[in-house]
Amino acid sequence: MSDKTTMRQPLDEVPPPAVAPLDPRLLVREEGLKGYLTEFKRKLKGGELGSLPVILALVIIWTIFQLKDSLFLSSANMVNICYFMAGTGMLAVGLVFVLLLGEIDLSVASVSGLAAAVFASLSVTHNINAWVAVVLTVLTGIAIGAIHGFFFAKIGVPAFVVTLAGFLGWTGLMQWLLRGTGSLTIQDKGLLHVLGQRSFFMNQSIAGAYILATLGVGALLVGSLIDQSRRRSAGVPFRPTGEILVRTVALAVVAYVAAYVLNKSAGVPNALVIFLATLVICDFVLRRTTFGRKIFAVGGSIEAARRAGINVAMIRIVVFAISGGFAAIGGLFLAGQTYTATLQAGTGNLLMLAIAAAVIGGTSLFGGRGNVWSALLGMLVIQSIQTGLDLLNMDQSIQYMITGAVLLAAVVVDSVSRRTQRSSGRA
């Protein structure tokens, strides 16, 4: 037989076409409850802890303080926790964006203090319309953040150094603006009234809290069903209807219980309503938009993001601008608590609490992992500690030590989780 003669494989021996492997998430969900337990164990072994550690920590903290003082879980104290966590929480939201890049912003506290001084100077000293003053104040924070981002992204100065310089510089500018009196009293009207301690949703109406709970539950249900339909049409894994209903019922229980507890006192503070609405919007931006996916891409791998055609410098500048804007908004929230702009605004442990809230809530210090709901969970932990220690008349030094220990524990969990994911090939 000639060398050019080719050997043909018999038709009955032709290998069958390759079958694409099914997504494991689809397989386990077909097993019902057993499948979900299997998936949960897989995530734990792979280091995907999610919000579980902080939720467990919150349960432990509430249990301890309730055993120490029966007033801790009272409706009045819960209203205080919900109100006072909103201001620092706004700073934490901006920091979540920066932390997702794997960077840090040390200027947010001083920017918040400067924002309060700018608003007071515009509205009180120069008699500018309060709402115009609010817009100018927020734009000031955005501009400051963009300046930090420019020096970091374009000049190459480390974010730590740029924002540390900003911390010092903007604190000095705040002191210069208040140099004449040392403080400015802001009238209890307009936005500052909405953010004040005496302002509640629908004027303390019982229906207000339940309306908010219904809106939240309805938004989750509708959004989940739309996402399910979109994913099914695209042929990618989607949540079964049963899982969506379980999630919705779980949120409904939490939301309506919270509404009931808050209604036993004064209702839902407007500051909390604005804070929650902000979290919903930011969560949508991060999870549902191209810009949000670019932030995660840059935080996960700068070089990979650059090769994918992402303008890394622009993303960095915009993210720091967002952080500055939220710092200014947080400054307005904090000013609304006292109706004053003082030299002490933005000082003390505010910066550390904002950073701790984002990290304790589950946002990674190493970038690429986290969400804005971290700000809510982290602030619940921190504000619960502060309020509980105040009820027990404990010294502030104890508060610092406990908060520091909780922060260290959160970072340790994050580090161990990343190491576990790396060893299991998921990082």
TrEMBL record:
Domain of life: Bacteria
Annotated GO MF terms: transmembrane transporter activity
TM helices/strands, residue ranges: 49-65, 77-99, 106-124, 130-152, 159-178, 201-223, 244-262, 268-286, 313-335, 341-360, 372-392, 398-416
Membrane topology value: Multi-pass membrane protein
Subcellular compartments: Cell membrane
GO cellular component, one term: plasma membrane
Keywords linked to the UniProt accession: Cell inner membrane, Cell membrane, Membrane, Sugar transport, Transmembrane, Transmembrane helix, Transport
Chief place where the protein resides: membrane
Protein's UniProt keywords contain Ribonucleoprotein: no
One protein family per Pfam: BPD_transp_2
Physiological role: Part of the binding-protein-dependent transport system for D-xylose. Probably responsible for the translocation of the substrate across the membrane.
Full protein name: Xylose transport system permease protein XylH
